[in-house]
Amino acid sequence: MIPILLSITIIIGVYFIELKKNVQHHCSFILSMFFFFFLMGGNYQNADYDAYRYSYYNSSFENVNFAYWAYNLSMYFFSTLGISFISYRLLLYAIGLIFISFTVKKVSGPNLLFSFFYFLYPMIIDATQMKNFLAMSIFSFALTFLSENLLGKIKYTILLLLAGGFHIAIFAFFPLVIFKNFILSKNLRYFFIPFIFIAALFMSTMGANSVLLNYLSSLMINDFADKQSLYFNQSVNYGFLIYFFATTLNFFVVCKARKIIKASTYTNDFQKKFSEIVYMCSIYSFLFFPLYMFRLEFSRIFRDLFIVINCLVALALCIQTYDGRYLTLSRDKIELGICHIILLGILYYFGIHEAYDSVVQPLFLYNIFY
Fold first, then answer.
1. What is the pTM of this model?
2. Does the CA dihedral 196-200-203-206 come out positive or negative?
3. CA distances from residue 320 to 266, 274, 328 in whole angstroms, order as listed
């Protein structure tokens, strides 16, 4: 643990030096990304490591299919070149962190507060679920184009197809490019609440839903390399309430951050439009709540939004109200920060804590630092 604590100390030290000099925190943010790279990419023992390693060394062109086309092609290409699995793993995490860096830089600029939130959640799960991490990273960058014109929507679609090639769960966000304006419309509430109620009732009481749910399950859950059940040990009878509460609290956090960003004179048009996109995504995530009543593994869709949510909250908390060089606090910012920390704490405790021995401990004990 000493190398990890030393790395964190160096990053924080550089941050305060930059803060004192009133400059953007490029160095501290870059250092935090390198820290994540070595910690996550260099991890060589976790719940999914052996399964990923086996699939890499046994990959073939015949295994390429639509659901994971990019992942299977990349495995086949690099394994054919004789690249070791650990090198392949480092490469994928480097690409993912580059996409995350582009997203953060575009939304809020170099921001160590984002790194702090990401470290709390979902970095630990991302270190285990390699495919979903890369898909989520590409998808997060794709969302920065969704508020633009037709060319931006085309970029979003292309990036989404690439992200979906690493994990099919990302395709759940494809309708955003079509229904964005509808989701943001004021009349949505007349459709939204009845739909959630009816869908939840259907999922919990109707026997006719088994065909649909088994099909969805086959797409997302029968993936031996992502043993998602390790992270969600709660009974479906009650566990879905945790994610209902988390989804609701997340919506409140996004609304609070959106309010701060829209009211500030230090945010640009893109940042205000991006806050609308994340707000739309938080509404959209409610549509998947009924699926949690069937299998909690579908919460993966909810988790895939957390890079952009952490970006939005970090931006909102770092907005300067009277001078661009100084960080100021307000009641809204304090409430936002407290609520977001509580949200991340809930997700960590109920989504990761139960798998401490197989997920958390190996990440910090078996990595490139040792």
1. 0.86
2. negative
3. 7, 18, 6
List pLDDT tens digits, range 137-149: 999 999 999 987 8
CA angle 170, 33, 67 (to 5 degrees): 20
Burial 55-79 (b: 16+ CB within 10 A, else e): bbeebeeeebeebbbbbbebbbebb
HEC profile of 205-274: HCHHHHHHHHHHHHHHCCCCCCCHHHHCCCCHHHHHHHHHHHHHHHHHHHHHHHHHHHHCCCCCHHHHHH
Q: Please state, in angstroms and rounded to a whole number, the distance separating the CA atoms of residues 175 and 160.
A: 11
Classify the phi-psi angles of 144: left when phi > 0, otherwise alpha if psi is within -120 to 50, otherwise beta: alpha
Tell me phi and psi for residue 192, to 5 degrees.
Answer: -65, -55
Q: Tokens at residue 4, please? A: 């990890």
Phi then psi for 174, rounded to 5 degrees?
Answer: -65, -40
What type of residue sits at position 173? F
Phi, psi dihedral angles at 203 (to 5 degrees): -65, -35
Token pair 């304090």 in the structure block, residue: 334
Question: How confident is the model over 148-198, as pLDDT tens digits?
Answer: 788 999 999 999 999 999 998 898 899 888 877 777 776 666 666 676 666
The token pair that represents 182 in the structure block: 């509808």
